[in-house]
UniProtKB/TrEMBL annotation:
This is Large ribosomal subunit protein uL6. It comes from the Bacteria. GO terms for cellular component: cytosolic large ribosomal subunit. GO terms for biological process: cytoplasmic translation. It comes from Thalassospira profundimaris. Belongs to the universal ribosomal protein uL6 family. Pfam families: Ribosomal_L6. Part of the 50S ribosomal subunit. One of its GO terms (molecular function) is structural constituent of ribosome. SUPFAM superfamilies: Ribosomal protein L6 (SSF56053). Residues 11-82, 91-164 form the Large ribosomal subunit protein uL6 alpha-beta domain. This protein binds to the 23S rRNA, and is important in its secondary structure. It is located near the subunit interface in the base of the L7/L12 stalk, and near the tRNA binding site of the peptidyltransferase center. Keywords: Ribonucleoprotein, Ribosomal protein, RNA-binding, rRNA-binding. The lineage of its organism: Bacteria, Pseudomonadati, Pseudomonadota, Alphaproteobacteria, Rhodospirillales.
């Protein structure tokens, strides 16, 4: 029995849900998102709650039960509150800035790294060493943050690089004479 799937998803005020047999869409103050549903689970809406139930007792249906419920919860939370990831840049000469529809990172390479900001995301360089990525789609926010971090991940000797806010880097001892 899924511990996640058996709980309902609460729909806050200001969010409208459109439920069909194959898809669910949510519309709120931050935009509109949709999710394609599988035939292994049944999604129903009662009052201001969305319930997810497996269609049978098969392994795939039980696996998708909690996953579908979590995806629907992310859909509802995204259009009502949104998601934000913050990246910290550490290192001498490392900095970031937003120029139009591009995020420009200076990470110690011989060239600047330019990343196109996807539609639906808002990227703000709060300081030259702090980037805030926000949007309604949790997957899109996380993927863009991971791509930015992937250019120069934090290294364990000096701690330089791009890391998530609050991420702890396990530091190693350097060479000894």
């Amino acid at each position: 029995m899924s511990r996640v799937g058996k709980n309902p998803v609460a729909v806050p005020n200001g969010v409208t849900i459109n439920l069909t047999e194959a898809a669910i869409s949510a519309k709120g103050k931050l935009g509109e998102l949709s999710l394609n549903l599988t035939s292994d689970v049944t999604v129903t809406q009662e009052d201001n709650q969305i319930w997810v139930k497996p269609n049978n007792d098969g392994k795939r249906a039980r696996a998708l039960w909690g996953t579908t419920r979590a995806n629907i919860a992310n859909l509802v939370a995204g259009v009502s509150e949104g998601f934000t990831k913050k990246l910290e840049i550490t290192g001498v000469g490392y900095r970031a800035q937003v120029q139009g529809n591009k995020l420009v990172l200076q990470l110690g390479f011989s060239h600047d790294v330019e990343m196109d900001i996807p539609s639906g995301l808002s990227v703000v360089a709060e300081k030259p060493t702090l980037i805030a990525i926000s949007g309604a789609d949790k997957q899109l926010v996380g993927q863009f943050a991971a791509n930015a971090r992937g250019w120069r991940g934090p290294e364990p000797y000096k701690g330089k690089g791009v890391r998530y806010e609050g991420e702890y880097i396990l530091r190693k001892e350097g060479k000894k004479k």
